[in-house]
Amino acid sequence: MTSPRRVAARAAAERMAELLGEKAGETVGYLTRLDSRQSARTRILVVTEAIFVNRILQDPELSDVSAVLFDEAHERHLDGDLGLALALEAREVLREDLRVLVMSATIDGARFARLMGPAAPVIESEGKAHPLDTVWLGSSPGAPVEDAMASAILTAWRERDGDILAFLPGVREIERVRERLAARLPDAPVLPLHGQVEAAGQRAAIRRDPRGRRRIVLATAIAETSLTLDGVSVVVDSGLARHAQFDKAAGTTHLVTRRASQAAAAQRAGRAARQGPGTAYRLWEEASHAGRTAFDPPEIATADLAPLVLRTAQWGSSDPAALRWLDPPPQASVAAARAQLQTLGALDGAGRITGRGLALAALPLDPQAAAMVLFGAEHGAAETAARLALLLQERGLGGRGEDLEARLARWNADRSPRAEASRKLAAGWARAAGGGSGGDAPLGVLLAAGRPDFVARRRDASGESWLTAGGRGFVLDPASPLARAEFLVVGDAQGQAKGARIAAAAPLAESDIERWLADRIERRGVLVWTGERIEARLERRLGAIVLASGPDPAPDAEAMRALLVDKAVEKLGTLLPRDVLARARFAGIGALSEDRLRDSATLWLAPLLAGRRDLDIPRGKLVEGLLGLLDWDERQRLDRLAPREFASPAGTFHPIDYAGNDAPSVEVRAQALFGLDRHPMIGPEPTGVPLLLKLTSPAGRPIQATRDLPGFWRGSWAEVRKEMKGRYPKHRWPEQPWTEAPSLKTKNAFAKSGG
């Protein structure tokens, strides 16, 4: 029988044994990571879900098991879903006689029945229901949850009889509420119930007070299901829950506090009416209850899937989706898990498990922790590595603080039962890895063996900002003793990707990186764009961390050219000769459109950038490169429909502007147009477009612009002539310029030339 939590597994076994008039370990036993009671007489073994997964992977036929009961299946823990998927496949392929049962008080029976096959019956039991009153206390948005809960517990203490079970999101809130209640109810036993409490303390929280006193149990979600707390008839629910959520961007699992689901709230309230009538106090409004989610999301949708992907590969399935799931694992999470496992050498490129992966999977640990222990075993530090792995998993061991070395030292000196049991567990892992002792691998190196992407380098003087080899950024409290280190290995972090705070780390010397991580250091040529040109650097890198950098005397020419092309495309609008593009646009030649040029930049622009480190390409080469994209017919069409220059009757040449708002236009002196009585046209015949003539004085100042030269000659020219004649008396200003010979010469020079 599987159970989601150690506390629940032990309590369920002890309760069943009590009903048989026995002690746990006889007919009914249990097996958890830190505790075990079983014997040759044991016929019912209650185990945690993770232990069942390890069991079925080692023995797919479950040769000495006749039935597997998955209890509290509605909680949808990752190991629970995986264990069920493996059991169903074992029943289908290896053990047709294996009986599989899924149980829960709030299960979606029809959905599970479809998963388990057409022959799976749904059995419902109404059970014994006692009356339950619900008191809606409402929320206090501005008040800390500890203050609101302490006040609510005191209210329940005054208004109701019986023991009180209060649900809080985490250990920190439990301790703060304990402090507040101790001052108000000094004689009442206030007992914590969470995963860090030792077994004796957990048993005390579950059972009645031996002296008959009313007690208050402060619990996390650990007490939601599977447990009957003897004597509890009052529940006070904060309405909050804390869940582990994997952040793919940060690569870490952090705790998120959110509103408990309706199903979780129902389970919590039900604890008050297990043995008789009860009351549930809720710290939210009745009207808002319907807005809560119906169920908590399954872990398979939010967790790090590296352990699942490794175990399915060990099972023989390179694609986890091939198994039967209530909710299939998200493909993005599976891809991230595969990448992590390939970094550890656990999977090959096809997703198949490697020899290294089998060695990691043989240890009852997640892949990162297993990699630490295996590396430690290979270098004579197996037990230290195993203790480090357990330190990261078991909150509270060695106290608190970011410094894993300090926490490990405190744990090593701790002689409490929990510390002793934890050391025994770590020693078992070390033996399983086959390691000896006497090695000199530092703690940071052991941590890096499992988390190579989380080696981090300080980015500022305060030690607040850190960059990891995997390219992620983390922050650290500058007051932490670790802030003075140059390198760290991050063991745990809390918060979102961009602002994730380092919660556990070990320092690492640069000399240790050179010695122990030399196989991960690479020399790499790097091209840096300064905004104006390329700088070529030769770097020694550990992933995204630059260990050393200097000028690269022989950079990759093709890479430089490719980078210049990318930068040129980014600023193509300012790089291209606008006049050439405007001519092509006017002539309707799509080959020189900006979009087409952007798409074909590697073809026409790359040759112009060969041997360069900047984008200062001479204009002539740019124009030549652009025109080289046109075939002969397109060149002829461009010159015919959009000539580059206007040839005046006086034999002068003037560039035509195709890019301005009044395009096409040309600036030309009025005298150069004498003798012209037909307006020049641009574009396809027979219609074309009138060329805007911007007439200037002999000094180049604007006189007038026109698209109707004959009309101008016979109209406003008279006023222009009168004004210009007085301003430029040495030049010709005839009454009928269309009849005159064109020339830019003065009157005297024109006369002497025989004009």
Q: Would you give an account of this structure?
A:
The chain has 755 residues and is an alpha/beta fold. It has six domains: 2-116, Rossmann fold; 132-301, 3-Layer(aba) Sandwich (Rossmann fold); 363-516, no CATH class; 522-555, no CATH class; 560-641; 645-752, no CATH class. Helix content is 37%, strand content 19%. The protein is built from 29 helices and 29 strands. It has a six-stranded parallel beta sheet with strand order 7-14-11-8-10-9, with helices on both faces. A five-stranded antiparallel beta sheet has the order 17-16-15-18-19. A four-stranded mixed beta sheet has the order 1-4-2-3. Helix 10 (306-315) packs across helix 11, helix 12 packs across helix 13 and helix 13 (367-378) runs antiparallel to helix 14. It is elongated and about 135 Å long. The termini are far apart. The mean pLDDT is 89.
Write the layout of secondary structure elements.
Layout: E1 2-3, H1 6-19, E2 28-31, E3 36-37, E4 44-48, H2 49-58, E5 67-70, H3 78-93, E6 99-102, H4 109-116, E7 132-136, H5 145-159, E8 163-167, H6 171-184, E9 190-193, H7 199-206, E10 216-219, E11 232-237, E12 240-247, E13 252-259, H8 262-270, E14 278-282, H9 286-289, H10 306-315, H11 331-343, H12 355-361, H13 367-378, H14 382-393, H15 404-413, H16 417-433, H17 443-450, E15 455-458, E16 465-468, E17 473-475, E18 487-494, E19 501-507, H18 510-516, E20 521-529, E21 534-542, E22 545-551, H19 557-570, H20 572-575, H21 578-587, H22 594-599, H23 601-604, H24 606-609, H25 619-627, H26 632-641, E23 645-647, E24 653-655, E25 665-669, E26 681-682, E27 689-690, E28 692-696, E29 702-706, H27 709-714, H28 717-727, H29 747-752
Parallel strand pairs: 1-4, 2-4, 5-6, 7-14, 8-10, 8-11, 9-10, 11-14, 25-28
Antiparallel strand pairs: 2-3, 12-13, 15-16, 15-18, 16-17, 18-19, 20-21, 21-22, 23-24, 26-27, 28-29
Helix pairs in contact: 2-3, 5-6, 10-11, 12-13, 13-14, 13-17, 14-16
